[in-house]
Amino acid sequence: MRRVAVLGIDVGGTFTDAVLLEDGHVRTAKVSTTPEQEQAVLAAALAVGAAAADRFTHGTTVATNAFLERKGARTALVTTRGFEHVLHLRRQNRASLYDLSVDHPDPLVPLDRSYGVVGRIEPDGERVPLDLTTLPEIDADAIAVCLLFSFRDPTHELAVADELRRRYPDKPVVASHEVAPEFREYERASTTAADAYLGPVVSRYLRSLAEACGSAGLPEPLVMRSSGGVATLEEAAEHPSWILVSGPAGGVVGAARVAQLAGFENAIAFDMGGTSTDVCLIANGRAERTNERQVGGLPIRLPTIDIHTVGAGGGSIVWRDSGGALQVGPQSAGAVPGPACYGRGGMEATVTDANLLLDRLPQRLADGLELDPTVAAAALASVDPADVIAVVNAEMLRALRLVSVERGHDPRDFALVAFGGAGPLHACELSDELGCSTVLVPESAGVLSALGLAGSDERRDRVRSYVRPLAEIDGLPTEGAADLRYQGQSFELTVPLGGDLAADFHASHAERYGYADESRPVELVAVRTADVNPGPVLEFASDLVASAVGPVRLDLAGATCWVPEGWAGETDSHGTLRLERTS
Amino acid sequence: MTTTMDVELQVIGSALRAVAEEMGAILIRSAFSANIKERRDCSTAIFAPDGRMIVQAEHIPVHLGAMPEAVAAVMALDPADGEIYILNDPYTGGTHLPDITLVSRTRVGFAVSRAHHADVGGMEPASLPATSRELYQEGMIIPPTLLDERILRLLVANMRNPDERRGDLRAQIAAHRLAEARLDELCEKRSSAQVVSAMDELYAYSERRIRAGLERLPDGVYRGSGVLEPAEGELTIEVAVTVAGDQVEIDFAGTSPQHDGNLNCPLAVTRSACFFVVRCLADPDVPASGGAFAPVAVRAPEPCLVNASPPAAVVAGNTETSSRITDAVFAAFSQATDVPAQGQGTMNNTTFGNRRFTYYETIGGGQGASPHSHGPSGVHVAMSNTLNTPVEALELSYPLRVERYELRPGSGGDGAQRGGDGVLRELRVLEECRLSVLCERRRNRPRGMAGGEPGALGRTRLNGKELPPKATLQLAPGDIVLIETPGGGGWGPAPSSSD
To answer: pLDDT tens digit string along A509-536?
Structure first.
């Protein structure tokens, strides 16, 4: 029988990681990311020896970079007349409560490219017929259309989008009901504008990537979306705002698989890198999802893996504020100049310097970098390195509690999967605070996103908006989830389809908010379903053997792990270091 | 004074801050009225056993300085562990009647939540009458009272939309139950004594930071003033700010006497407005705790416009007079340091209601420009920071339609830095109801700074006809209310067009 080879390649800011799984063996490679990302993808594929992969999955930062660096298309917005300024009015709250000079980031569409069209749909239907003659000529390279109530009745919006597509056949036109058919016009318009804004850049990249793969004999890649599932290149190009959280989503999928192989269906992915830390809860083998995320200060309302990010990482800079409190981050020394102990000219103390002085890092890293404790000590001066760890841990603990305790999960039922350069250094102490009793450090801790990509499901999310009493609705699908609330509330609780929705909602409300009121009508806001085409089941073995009884530092190939007193463990057959609390 | 902070206490402090934030999240997510769930007109806080404020979830500045009085009023009743008290009396710990405050005793101190309810009874739906002259007309007055099911029933029976009120109060109660559980966990992990020490340290920490900020301001006595627009004539706020080293005294001697209408402030609201300005100028990022206000003394003759006595009406004091107090205090500080030009200086309170529904909104406008940046457009500028109600959320729930919602280009004052633009919002009513508007800056433009031009006036029109700044009237189906909010002032002279 022919062997199946699956390839995952994740392009990050500094490095591009590749994982190739063939016949139960994992091969990994790391290359530098190039300005043309498709070049880095090819280099990584070559480095990992993927001459002929059967399935190729890809995570990319192209959309995120274009978004954050504001390098997207000249975009126009068409709204219901009278509401052209929706992106500029936002939700009317100011950017900073007490610093009155601070403004929000500029919207993606300026006022002079915000257009209105006559026609009005109201909650009960059309009040003013659509008048396409009021749709002006539009000078832009991409067009977003977001009319009021299109989540309920898209006829006007469709007609406007069709007219624009007829007039400007070469320009991407995105209608809000296609991308985020949910109520609240600002958030929907913001998402639609982002989708149009990213269209040309992302399509261009995916086209050249497809060509490059074709000439290198690689299969056309599937692209990771923020939802934690992959889709075809064509689908990804159609709605590029869905790939804004592509890379981190791969890491969570990888963490879920590693946890599952170690026997844990419940886990928390803890990815601590140089400048930030991403955490995400995995319940019953599945990453938690959310429907909205802020990217660069703008709301994006799309199915997203529920990753919570804090600005604390190994490179976070240590400082003392005017009240005498020790602070860590959010400024980071980055890779250049990097922590003081790198000896590359960085003068400011970082978390990495504190870890080195506490002997939690070796003086020579696996990649050959020499760390200098004298410089680290000079940079930290009078600050106790243990205090630095306590402060940065408090910041990360807040994030871990937010995704677990504050969402009604008991962390004692969860294993912490530690990855990223600094995750395994902090995981045991955080578990002590949080109450987890198992820490898992995957052998592939340094390339876990690429591993996750290799095993990702194909996934296509659908949402249908209702905003109607639950009692009036029949014929719901049995797989998926329903967003429900008491009539009159604005925030929903998500309940799985297939059971008694009303009863499950009351129970969930009681658990979350401390009471249920069965006399109140329940409203169905939306139904979320997904077509999932399962990815390959990643089975692999490892020769890695290691064990530790804390307190001890363990230098692994891809990461350094700190095992404090009261913790011990060893590697399993998949190469995952499994640490348990012993006291 | 120590200049470093014990890290263990700092870590507990971050846990306390998380509790206040989680309380706020629970309240917003489980509430029923647009004013809490969409506009987030609410705040939550944790207090020390001795009644000092330790952490507050940052939502609404006007709630900031006005919560300690609520806790003091409840402490006087010697509450037991786990008991929740309710109050809204502006003269016993409250601000204005729609702001209902819950205070509960926890294992270590108190948890507090304050939310603006869409109706608390009184002469007009939504309880923001333009013409009230005594507190009794503004709604149900709740002195600090132990909250149980019977009291809850009594209270909501006196408010319009009792079902919605009950839902919102239950959301508030849920926040308190959560705080109780979280503080218990924290005390079990760290010991109550440690938690109390952390509270002391958080308080001292904010105080150190604010004092360091005040120290940078030159000593001296600085004066400012502001004008309000009652139905007839004018009311003036006079203020003298004395900066001495690391403390400041703010004295309102010379301010107009108590108002015959509802523009009066209880002193707690006046204090909030003063604390807001001090915080903006001394240290915008200081964590909100009572310590940040320890070096600020606020005095006002009693009774007067900014230190009202019962039973004076106060409903507009919280929103409008408080805005003007910040303008006057900023104006005084402008003699000592750079301050932004004036922002819209009103919350443009607009309420609609009948027996069936009550709806309240406030509308953003132009922020004043700063020396190095333009003024943001279409935002709340001072004591409020509520969100808007999305058009789609509003129309799905209320017999109201939004016809236009736009910026007012050019309404910000010109200058080297331009003031922010105001907002235009047009609403059509579908059924008979009452309208109340409580607005300012309909006669006096927001001033520019350092040679910048003033912002445009706001105005309110009903079917095209201009309304006075404050009005309550009956609407018929099809009536159209158009509100244009003021622009912010510019900063520095505008570059001349001939250049």
So the answer is: 988 887 888 988 999 999 999 999 998 8
**Whether B61 contacts B124, CB under 8 Å:** no
Looking at residue A271, its amino acid is D
Q: How far is CA A235 from CA A162, A181, A293, B122, in A?
A: 20, 18, 21, 57
- Residue B68's identity, in one-letter code, is P
Tokens of A441: 């450090």
Strand residue runs (E) in A490-581 = 493-496, 522-533, 547-549, 552-555, 560-563, 567-571, 577-581
Residue A365 one-letter amino acid: L
Q: CA gyration radius for chain A?
A: 25
| Residue B121 to residue B98: CA distance in whole angstroms | 9
Mean pLDDT, chain B, integer: 94
Q: Output the pLDDT for position B62.
A: 82
Fold designation for A5-67+202-246: Nucleotidyltransferase; domain 5 (3.30.420)
CB pairs under 8 A between A and B: 197
The DSSP-derived string for A535-549 is: ------------EEE
From B167's Cα to the closest Cα of chain A, the distance in A is: 9
Cβ–Cβ gap A387/B280 under 8 Å: no
* CB contact set of A211 (below 8 Å; sequence gap of 6+): none
Domain limits, chain A: 5-67+202-246, 75-200, 458-533
State the pTM of this model.
0.92
Distance from CA of B224 to the nearest CA of A (A): 19
Could you give the angle at which helices A385-403 and A423-434 cross, rounded to 10 degrees?
Answer: 70
Q: How far is CA A377 from CA A61, A335, A340, A361, B6, in A?
A: 36, 19, 9, 14, 20
Three-state DSSP state, A241: helix
State the Cα–Cα distance between residues A204 and B3, nearest whole angstrom: 55
Burial classification of residue A364, based on how many CB atoms lie within 10 Å of its CB (0-12 exposed, 13-18 middle, 19 or more buried): exposed
In this prediction, residues A462-478 reach a mean pLDDT of 89
Question: H-type helices in A134-184, by residue range?
Answer: 155-167, 176-179
pLDDT tens-digit readout, B443-459: 999 999 999 999 999 99
Residue of A nearest to B277 (CA): A98
- CA–CA distance, B367 with B407 (Å, rounded to integer): 13
* Helices vs strands, H then E, count in chain B: 10, 19
Integer-rounded Cα Rg, in Å, for chain B is: 22
